[in-house]
TrEMBL record, chains A, B:
Entry-linked PROSITE patterns: CNMP_BINDING_3, HTH_CRP_1, HTH_CRP_2
Domain HTH crp-type intervals: 162-236
Occurrences of domain Cyclic nucleotide-binding (ranges): 31-148
Protein name: Cyclic nucleotide-binding domain-containing protein
Pfam families per UniProt: cNMP_binding, HTH_Crp_2
GO cellular component, one term: cytosol
GO molecular function: DNA binding; DNA-binding transcription factor activity
Superkingdom assignment: Bacteria
Protein keywords: DNA-binding, Transcription, Transcription regulation
Length: 245, 245
DNA sequence: GCCGGCTATGCCGCCGTTCGATATGGGCCG
DNA sequence: CGGCCCATATCGAACGGCGGCATAGCCGGC
């Protein structure tokens, strides 16, 4: 992680020094995976690297959507609110995930840092111009959006039809699989978000989340380790528990 | 509606006769809206028109995803199943909606006709070739996917955090707004799907759906009319009820 | 007119919520 | 280094909204 010490930092080395994208650890996962060296250079020209602390709100629902982001380190959460304060977290973003697609010029959700995060930041206009110029990039972005759509449908099944226990098991499995895709070990799985965040992601309360973790621990399905890590004792069993079969 | 009388019909008039897309009533809503006359002609070359009766399963979750569709008339439902039969309907498709995006060569959900439907049918390979050739079409498809993503996030908020009453009110509002976008009157709203389908879309049971409709009727928010139509007495009130404010 | 599927509704039970109290643990300061 | 403090997590008890089941009513099709 670069040694930044401010909330927002303009990465002047992007233009002057070596191409930062060339050394990007998550490039293969992102929209940038589709690009050649020359295209990467063009992308780097319009990019800023920024860093935020946990709890920082990147943007709020309804804000003007003039910026796109790519997560390069840390975890973010996206959420929507009801007037009385009820909250639904619609997704957690991990390194390599894209952020900032919008429909009508405004963001449809809020985005907040869960852990310290670093992001690549693209002005929307210039990004769109690049997309027109590089159809490969457009196609890659479309493919990522399709993947998110499929994940959203999985999440609908979870929210609408799964029990508390199935939801927690599905959640742990998802974190494990996403960690694996990023080249980390699948077990034990790192769970950086709070019980409240997990509850608002799964359509539960913090109490139910706590109780269910305790229940899974008591029945020897998982173990809670130091540093927000969860050891999964039997991955196949967890998979079955996640689908009620 | 063309006078088809079979389950699957190859529309031979597409190539031989007048360009059918030119007269398409929902073209402005679909991916085809982005196309010029010449591009439309190319699209028409690879297209078949098909028609299905209610209950017909277009494809199932896990099937090989070698075909894309565009709904031109009627209503379809998309759903996912759990091993024990629990079902979550992830969306209802109306004329103009696109269908068949997939991640790993297989459909991630099943698709079934709710009412009699007519669809445009595109072989996946040839469609992808056209997308490469016409970036405007690719961009349009991406924009439609972004819209669906936003709708999916709304649905997550509904499933995870709204009460039964709020869910039903949100559902009626959505149908009303979608009807309006298609040039129909927003009120009364046509509700072609069964209580069971509504329940599986909103994460409820049929009984709760029935009870909630009765409750809304008793409190004079709506009235149930002939022909599966619902009269909304006060649209603003319904909007407030849908968000719990 | 009869039959079958869908819808409506009363009754009861349960899962998850709500509320309150207690435990834990990490950060900060003395 | 130890102790305090506040946020978070955990746990117990009571409540309530929604689900499950059974029955009755409705409507459409043949």
């Amino acid at each position: 992680m670069p040694p930044f010490d401010m909330g927002r930092v303009r990465d002047v080395s992007a233009q002057a020094d070596v191409n930062p994208c060339g050394a990007c650890p998550v490039r293969s996962l992102t929209v940038c995976a589709a690009l050649e060296a020359e295209e990467l250079r063009r992308l780097a020209e319009i990019l800023q690297t920024v860093r935020f602390e946990p709890g920082h709100t990147l943007f709020g629902e309804g804000d003007k959507a003039d910026t796109l982001y790519n997560v390069t380190a840390g975890t973010m959460k996206l959420y929507k609110l009801l007037p009385d304060g009820r909250r639904q977290i619609t997704g957690f973003l991990l390194p390599g995930d894209f952020l900032g697609l919008s429909v009508n010029e405004t963001y449809a959700y809020s985005a907040e840092a869960v852990t310290p995060v670093t992001l690549c930041r693209f002005p929307r206009r210039r990004m769109e111009a690049l997309l027109d110029e590089f159809p490969k990039m457009q196609r890659r972005l479309f493919s990522m959006a399709s993947n998110e759509l499929a994940a959203a449908q999985d999440q609908m099944l979870l929210l609408g039809r799964k029990t508390a226990k199935e939801k927690i098991c599905s959640f742990l499995l998802m974190l494990s699989q996403r960690a694996q895709r990023r080249g980390h070990k699948e077990n034990p799985v790192h769970v950086p978000m709070s019980r409240a965040d997990i509850a608002d992601y799964l359509g539960l309360t913090t109490e139910t989340v706590s109780r269910t973790f305790t229940q899974l621990k008591t029945s020897r399905v998982i173990a809670l380790l130091e540093g927000n890590k969860v050891q999964i004792h039997d991955m196949d069993q967890l998979y079955d528990l996640a689908e009620g079969s």
